[in-house]
Design brief:
The chain is of the alpha/beta class. The chain has three domains: 193 residues, P-loop containing nucleotide triphosphate hydrolases (Rossmann fold); 164 residues, P-loop containing nucleotide triphosphate hydrolases (Rossmann fold, 3-Layer(aba) Sandwich), CATH 3.40.50.300; 105 residues, Orthogonal Bundle (Arc Repressor Mutant, subunit A). It is 38% helix and 15% strand. It has 21 helices and 19 strands. The strands form five sheets. A seven-stranded parallel sheet has the order 3-4-2-5-6-1-7, with helices on both faces. Strands 8-13-12-9-11-10 form a six-stranded parallel sheet, sandwiched between helices. The protein has a two-stranded antiparallel sheet with strand order 14-15. Strand 14 and strand 15 form a beta hairpin. Helix 13 crosses helix 20. The longest helix is centred in the last third of the chain and has 15 residues. The chain is elongated. 41% of the residues are buried. About 4% of the residues have low confidence.
């Protein structure tokens, strides 16, 4: 322990004297002692549960090098900055450092100066680097965000699979796999893939009782719009810090500008920002009270701000793992916090397009989010059950199903995990939309299968616009047969039918056309039922 100075003899000394902490969080001690005993282990600790200490402390208790495999360069930079302040010699090898820095780091590694080395899995794919590492006194290997290694994980990365071959090069080096979000199936896959079948597994309590979970129908334009809805939620947490997640960079920028116009301290964070501005915004958020960051999922990993009082998902997350990880950035200090999810069935349609969720596994995970958002049972219990945690007689006082408002003190009386006020409500899996769908599909066909949703809806509503009259559409049998519904309703139905595969878009002109599924349904007068989550609002 000569690098750290006298008076440090064990891992608790490192905890107190180097990191300045009084005690361990749940499972930190067990994980650390497992590694120091020479055994592999998997640690599933919630966001904010102190995962980094689980490899940093063992790395300082033994002479030699600890290799940390991490997926994000920004996360490595944050860790290195923190370790530097603590006087712990650490370094990184990634694409952001120049040749001079690279050579200097290699030299320090040879001299044994570096105690913690951070590297991306892509960097470690280099045979030369692996050979170089084999000449060093490697003590531990830590795989951060280990769910990336599993094909069933919510952020699967093929390059993570190569870590197994790295392990075979260092068979006697204990390995620690870390993640905040992994179902039991993903946990087993991580351990199998890393060759850790004989290792130990530590899974912390996933419950965050201080966070109140709410799912809110997203406001339409006629109701003031989703931006005003977000603003109202932010005002509810006046002068408190919060994070708002959006699906795209464009939406983050639009929302941030809108909130700024309302005199809120809002800033943008996404991967497309200039590095200098991104770091400036992150620093401001971390250091100043009452700031709001509007971000894509690029923001949050490694962010240590315990007093975030609210997290708003302005768009539907792709997986429950993503959601839990992101909402878990609220209330790390243990004080009351809130997580809001604005939900509309059209999110599913947009995510399928924007994120290219065409694979069955991706859609399966998205449906789980929809089921959770659309559900009538306790949201907290449903989340915990998803992660394999038994809830027993959970007395939830922190979700909108069990409690009508996060400020309400008394829970709604429940039976078998379902609030009595919701107990008699039946949740239909599908809704019969045969008549409306037939009208819409017939209109697509009769207008020539070459126009977009707007034109088809115009015809259904009996529009007298010049283009409708010029095309001769006023004489169609479908002209005006949809006047009993609103324009937004028919637009939503169009998206639902496209999502369910009854219509598709021309790849060049984006015009709607019928699929074989629609033709068969129309010809045979089949019932057309849509999942409840895509029922038009």
């Amino acid at each position: 322990m000569d690098v750290l100075g006298p008076g440090i003899h064990n891992h608790e000394d490192v905890l107190h004297k180097i990191f300045g902490l009084e005690s361990y969080r749940p499972f930190q001690r067990e994980v650390i002692e497992t590694l120091l005993s020479g055994k592999d282990c998997l640690a599933v600790l919630p966001t904010g549960g102190g995962k980094s200490l689980c490899y940093q402390i063992p790395g300082l208790c033994r002479p030699g090098l600890t290799l940390v495999i991490s997926p994000l360069i920004s996360l490595m930079a944050d860790q290195l900055s923190w370790l530097e302040k603590l006087g712990i010699p650490s370094a990184t090898l990634n694409s952001t450092i120049n040749q001079k820095e690279y050579k200097s780091t290699l030299s320090d590694l040879r001299k044994g100066v570096i105690r913690l080395l951070y590297a991306a899995p892509e960097t470690l794919a280099s045979p030369w680097l692996r050979d170089f590492l084999s000449e060093l006194p490697l003590q531990f290997i830590a795989v951060d965000e280990a769910h990336c290694i599993s094909q069933w994980g919510h952020d699967f990365r093929p390059e993570y699979r190569e870590i197994r071959s790295l392990r075979t090069k260092f068979p006697s080096v204990p390995c620690l796999a870390l993640t905040a979000t992994a179902t039991p199936g993903v946990q087993r896959d991580i351990m199998r893939t890393l060759g850790m079948e004989k290792g130990l597994r530590y899974v912390a309590d996933f419950d965050r009782p201080n966070i109140h979970f709410s799912v809110l129908p997203r406001s339409t334009a006629s109701q003031g719009g989703w931006k005003n809805q977000v603003y109202t939620l932010c005002r509810k947490h006046k002068d408190q810090s919060g994070i708002i997640y959006c699906m795209t960079r464009k939406r983050t920028e639009e929302l941030a500008v809108f909130l700024q116009s309302k005199k809120l301290q809002a800033m943008v964070y996404h991967a497309g920002l200039a590095d200098k501005l991104r770091k400036k915004n992150q620093k401001l958020f971390l250091e100043k009270q009452g700031t709001i960051v509007v971000a894509t999922i690029a923001f949050g990993m490694g962010i240590n701000k315990p007093d975030v009082r609210f997290v708003i998902h302005a768009d539907l997350p792709k997986t429950l793992e993503n959601y839990y990880q992101e909402v878990g950035r609220a209330g790390r200090d243990g004080e009351p916090a809130a997580g809001y999810l604005l939900y509309s069935y059209s999110d599913v349609f947009r995510l399928k397009q924007i994120m290219d969720l065409t694979d069955s596994q991706g859609m399966k995970e998205l449906y789980k989010v929809v089921d959770w958002a659309d559900g009538q049972t306790c949201r907290r219990a449903a989340l915990l059950n998803h992660f394999g945690q038994k809830t027993g007689d959970l007395n939830c006082t922190g979700c909108d199903v069990c409690v009508t408002d996060e400020d309400q003190k008394e829970p709604v009386k429940k039976k078998n995990g379902v609030s009595r006020t919701q107990e008699k409500q039946s949740r239909n899996k599908t809704v019969n939309r045969t008549i409306e769908a037939q009208k819409f599909l017939s209109c697509v066909y009769r207008t020539g299968q070459r126009f977009g949703t707007s034109m088809v809806v115009n015809v259904l509503l009996g529009s007298r616009s010049q283009v409708v009259r010029e095309k001769g559409f006023t004489s169609l049998t479908t002209y005006g047969i949809g006047i009993d519904r609103s324009r937004q309703w028919w637009t939503n139905l169009s998206q639902a039918l496209e999502f369910e595969g009854y219509v598709e878009r021309d790849e060049h002109f984006s015009g709607l056309r019928l699929t074989d599924k629609a033709r068969i349904a129309l010809k045979n007068r089949q019932e057309i039922s849509l999942p409840s989550f895509v029922e038009p609002e």
